[in-house]
From TrEMBL:
The name this protein goes by in its record: Cell fate (Sporulation/competence/biofilm development) regulator YmcA (YheA/YmcA/DUF963 family)
Gene3D superfamilies: YheA/YmcA-like
Domain of life of the organism encoding this protein: Bacteria
């Protein structure tokens, strides 16, 4: 597949679309939630604790310390639960879902528009699956 040359009109349209997407409510909400999560001292503390406990768990498994493994797994589960139930984390996760849905919808619209105009089904080889040579495989 050949690369699109710089300055191609399609690239200009894509850049314009990207700028417009950045202004949508879904993307703005995601960025705000992301900033809040990244600047939260509590989130940072919990993530650091999770990383430390995961390292401890690796060592405990290496040395086959069964009781300590169970204890660490329980502690990790509790920390993950606390992290997942922080309001700013829940908001971040929800905004991420909404942003992904927007981007997937956009991808489907573009793919459907292109495939309709090219008479090609999305996700299939435009050549119909054969080599096109009409040779020994019998395709044409």
């Amino acid at each position: 597949m050949a690369a699109i040359e710089p300055g191609h009109p399609v690239l200009a349209l894509a850049h314009n679309l990207g700028r417009r997407l950045a202004l949508t409510a879904e993307i703005q909400r995601f960025r705000l939630a992301e900033e809040q999560v990244e600047s939260s001292r509590r989130v940072t503390e919990l993530i650091e604790t999770i990383k430390r406990k995961q390292k401890e768990l690796v060592h405990a498994k290496h040395y086959e310390k069964t009781a300590y493994i169970r204890q660490l797994e329980q502690e990790l589960e509790q920390i993950h639960h606390e992290l997942d139930h922080l309001p700013i984390v829940r908001e971040y996760q929800q905004s991420q879902v909404e942003m992904n849905e927007l981007l997937q919808t956009l991808q489907r619209v573009v793919a459907d528009s292109v495939s309709t105009r090219l008479d090609v089904e999305v996700g299939q080889d435009p050549g119909g699956g054969g080599c096109g040579s009409g040779g020994p495989c019998g395709c044409s």
